[in-house]
Amino acid sequence: MRLSMIVATVAGVALLITGLSMPWLKIPLILSFCYGMAALGIGVLLRAGQISFGHAMYACISGYVVAYLSSHFRGLDGALLIILGTLASIAVGMLVGAFVVRYREIFFGMLNLAISMVLFTVLGKFYAYTGGTDGLRVQRPTLFGFELGRTEFESALLVLAVILSLAVIWGVQRYFRSSAGEALAAIKTNETRLEYLGVSAKLLLWQGYVLSAGLCGLAGSLFGLSQGLVTPEMGYWLRSGEFVFIAILGGSGHAVGAFVGALLYEFLKMYAAALVSGAWQMILGVTLIVIIYFLPKGLVGLLSERRKALRGDA
Amino acid sequence: MSKDILILALLDGVSYAGLLFLVALGLTFIFGVVRILNVAHGSLYACGGYAAATLGLWLGGGSLGVSLAALIGSSIVVGIVLGTLLMLLLRRFQDRDPILQLLVTFGAFMIFEDLQRMIWGTQPYFVADVVNQMGTSEVLGVIYMNYQLLFVPGAALGVYALLQWFLNRTLMGRQIVAVTHDREVATAMGINAKRIAYLTFVVGAMLGALGGALASPTTSLVPGIGADMIVLSFAVVATAGLGQISGALITALLIGLSRSFCVYLYPELEVVMPYVIMVLVLLVRPQGLFTVAQARRI
Amino acid sequence: MSALLKTEGLTLAFGGLVVANGIDFELHEGERLAVIGQNGAGKTTFINICTGLLRPSAGRVEFDGVDITGKSPRHIVRRGMARSFQLPQLFLDHSVRQCLELAGMARQSRMPWWRSLASSADAREVDRVLELVNLRARQHEPASNLPEGQRKLLDVAMSLMLEPRLLIMDEPTSGVSSEEKHGVMEIVMGALEEKKVTAIFVEHDVDIVRRYATRVAAWISGGIAADGSPDTVLADANVRREVLGE
Amino acid sequence: MFKQTVLRVGVLAAFSLVALHGAVQAAEKPAELKVGITTFLSGSASVFGVPARDAAQMYIEELNAKGGIDGVKIKPIYIDEGVGGDRLLSEYRRVVQEEKAELMLASISSGNCNTLAPVAEDLKVVNLMWDCGTEKALEGHGYRYVFRTQANAVTEMVAAVAYLLKVNPDFKTIAVVNQDYAWGRDSWDIFRTVLTQLKPDVKVVAELFPKFGAPDFSAEVSRLQVLRPDVVLSTSWGGDLDTFVRQASQRGLLRTSKFYLPLGESSLERLGQTLPDGVLIGARGDHYFLHPSYLNDEKHKTFVAKFKEKTGSYPIYSVYHMVQALDAMVAAYDKAIKQNAGWPSKEQLAEAFRGLEFRGLTSAVTIRPEDGQGMEEQLFGITTTSSEHSFKVLKDIMIVPAEPVTTPAGQHTPDWLKTVTPTIIDAVKPAQAQ
């Protein structure tokens, strides 16, 4: 795992440099990191054998919080906004989590979907407060006290995104290997046994759920800042589907997977849209099916297979 | 006035519920038998609609019988073609994690979305012959299309009755029921699960397509109608309890009515209604309204 | 001395079928109770009620003098009543060692977020239990690699990690080939002996019952038909006819 | 004292130098002129986006055949707005910064205009808002590089009120059924504000905002039939408008209430005979393939014929808007090239758009020098059955000039709307047939 962390860091820095040298790449890169974090959130749940088609909701919530604060309290610093946005998502996650952890598999996914759809429609409906489907503008805040122009601001965000992503990968990976994390994974294989060990599967899942909400929230607030706009689309079920898509693409075996998946996804989509505009969805769909068919464990699954093989030889 | 509104809202709700039920039915049916939540069901709805409209245009009006035949025929064809495709696709993923199976259908959905646009373009499609041929009738000074008021709900009930008959009275149907209850035992009893699965997909797909076909005379077919329909029918299915056919009927009514009442009383809430209902129901009855929970054997 | 486990008038029926018919029962510290009976006699149901998986429609269960009727398995386990299963309930994606480590953490009812499982679990305890059930050699393999016999052992071992006062085993040797059976029982009983654990085990094999049980209870259609020393119960005509099918 | 004068002179000198410098340095002619065009190629708004794309292709082919702009060929790069706001932004950046597009046409969606305008400003690339409506995208921003080559929502809606009161002055009740998104809400806000001001006795009996892309309006239609408003307004478009109008007409609502569809022009051909005669229709601009004043105008006539031949249908307003934007582009380049005796830098190009007067397929449009807002006439008409078309056409076509119905430069729309007076009704004049 040490090795993978080093690799991730190197990759992150490399991306950072390319991003800073090619301005047009900044946004797609920032987006990929956002999607990576969100997908990692889904990945946490996947480890517990659960799937959510509503987690875009948490990205949406923090995004709106950031947008609202940025325009109503101009003084607030970007860093603070990110934290507050994430906290908001975590808070909602704690609340919603308390309900949904009673459900499993498709019902778990369905309930999340339904709740997110409620949020989505409400955001679209209460035009006066939420700006309706046009959403809210995010006023560009100071970042760590600096007034920044768009380009500098985006560079700064990119740096921030890379750092946060690495931190998140490291932290979440630790969690996966910790007692709580391993026990979470045990929910997937045998919840009954957990109960018969005197462990509350609900509590474990709740922790995982809050973590995943937090990750999506972090992604959402970064996303909002980089876009300068938040819309209900951020919380539509198709967006949640994308998160799941990416999580599966990358695989939930290792925290880094989500980010690999996100990068692949973002650029696949970008070039699919640029080259064969009008068929990008199809290309993505085919990719998804092919990946599931050949790499059910996702791209990191591939890596771990390799490692096993090597160990076998040695 | 209020009494009138009650009646009118009821009528509106019923006509909408009919459509909703037909779409949800296919979804819940497929899930009940093969335990796959088919996201591509939305595409079936869309394709059914487009196919019906195209056929209608091609026939260019004609008698009521012809137009009805067009609606039903097209949905049967779409059902067989797409149902087979889906089944062939999912067969490759038979023994995989249900989550992965669900995602495969999600991928299929994305593919169908673009296929639709390639085949039928982006201009709204619409053929209204049937509706005009069926005429209108007046209730409390409000004019209704017989098509929406009588035919669609009627068709929904008809299909429901037909399906019930098929499941309870025919050998094939009984086998399907057996599989839904316990696939191990059923297969042990020598039921050909493969054949059942195939049949299920085709029937389910037909129902989805029929929903689209019946919607096509009153609604415009545009890119992306599938995406909204699928979440809505998810709501119905999950609220009713996955695999619950009669449950879906009642839930569709519930949602249809709540929606139409909202339009009269508090329009802003109209769209949120189905999901609010779903959340509330699932909070009270985790398995959905009409499912009986069964314990896991250890 | 007071009973470790005590039930009064336990009653439960699924539809028409009565699976627990007013069962009164007591178990004392240090006993090795073998439960025998035909399939469907209500043995597993009895266990499920005692361990909190099923709620009786009437009657009460007491463990160590405390009423635990209708409490969740989790609470009951925490009180010191563990169970193993007819179909081994393992964490198949985890390694053999991890399964025990998780059980160990559960025992301490701590699930830290940060320290790795391996470093926070009590390694010596895990090693000891691995020794007891001699799974040491395979400790790093995924639990899914184990053959049925060893799965049974791991299942029991996980319960042992909980250091229970009472261990209820549902057919510990079913699905184990008859030559392995005695091996498995040797190991399990050795472990119980060493840890001073009172035990109930459901068993079909009369030799095993004779060899390891200090007491036998025969179940017939949801009730206890005979209860006492192995010799007396196994000699009981009714039991011979109804249970042993002779 | 003396010091100050020196200082002042110095500063002046410096400024003039800078100015001069700015004036003389012209960019050199590129091998080809890359133009980024955002339009909906997927999603429900592709009803507008795809025809507009076709129009752009047609236009650019012809232009290049004629040697392009000052010998420079145009290379269009189409961007799908349907991929969603975030990806659109990335793609926009890519086209400007990687592909080095000199000019951007964006976009159809008001939301996207709001997002992209500040970006264009930061990237210092000239951006033509070629179809989006919201006045908020320009008003009060004082952009240097962003212009709109057609009218905005204010012009369109105020004109719409003026027309309604002109042709149908005495009605008591009105109901609205709009799509539930920014355009649907904003357009109604403007309309209601002005209407209640010019005609305080009007009663708004229902405000319905069914979900975007709703498949069924039966409940809405029933409700309207109960209320029986004199006028039913809907600024919806595309599939939503078609569905609503069809269900309404099938249920005879169009017989009991007067329908008013300010964006109806874009649906006329699709709706065929569904619409009865006598429905009030708007065109979002003065675009209509049977515009009396340009019926026999060579440019317009040939274009309509070509477009019909290429796509099989008649041009709708988004098509006109696209052509209009491209014509503006050509006009601006010509102007800039004349002024600077050479290929213009981006700054010079931007300058050229200020106060630019140009003509698309219909009446000439001026871009206001102060805020870069296009001043475009508005066309309205009444549906009638036609002998040579299988669908309804417009008769009694009226034109509303832009000036009296548009927020004056520098003013705040909400404030200005309160000052609108009935005089605007007199500004509505029948279109002159030529």
From TrEMBL, chain A:
List, alphabetically, the InterPro entries matched: ABC_transp_permease, LivM-like
The record's keywords, sorted A to Z, are: Cell membrane, Membrane, Transmembrane, Transmembrane helix
GO cellular component, alphabetical, reads:
plasma membrane
Q: Where in the cell is it found?
A: Cell inner membrane
Indicate the principal place this protein occupies in or around the cell.
membrane
Which is a Pfam family this sequence falls into? BPD_transp_2
GO: which molecular function terms? branched-chain amino acid transmembrane transporter activity
What membrane topology term does the record carry? Multi-pass membrane protein
Transmembrane residue ranges: 29-49, 56-73, 79-101, 108-128, 153-172, 203-223, 243-265, 272-295
Q: What is this protein called?
A: Amino acid/amide ABC transporter membrane protein 2, HAAT family
Tell me the organism. Answer: Phytopseudomonas seleniipraecipitans
Q: What is the lineage of its organism?
A: Bacteria, Pseudomonadati, Pseudomonadota, Gammaproteobacteria, Pseudomonadales
Automatic annotation (TrEMBL), chain C:
What keywords are annotated for this sequence in UniProt? Answer: ATP-binding, Nucleotide-binding, Transport
Q: Which GO molecular function terms does the record list? A: ATP binding; ATP hydrolysis activity
Which Gene3D superfamilies does this chain map to? P-loop containing nucleotide triphosphate hydrolases
Q: Which CDD domains match?
A: ABC_Mj1267_LivG_branched (cd03219)
UniProt KW Iron-sulfur keyword: no
Keyword Nucleotide-binding, does the record have it? yes
Output the Pfam families linked to this UniProt entry. Answer: ABC_tran (PF00005)
Query: Which ranges carry the ABC transporter domain?
Result: 5-246
GO CC annotation terms, alphabetical: plasma membrane
Name of the protein: Amino acid/amide ABC transporter ATP-binding protein 1, HAAT family
Q: Please tell me the species this chain comes from.
A: Phytopseudomonas seleniipraecipitans
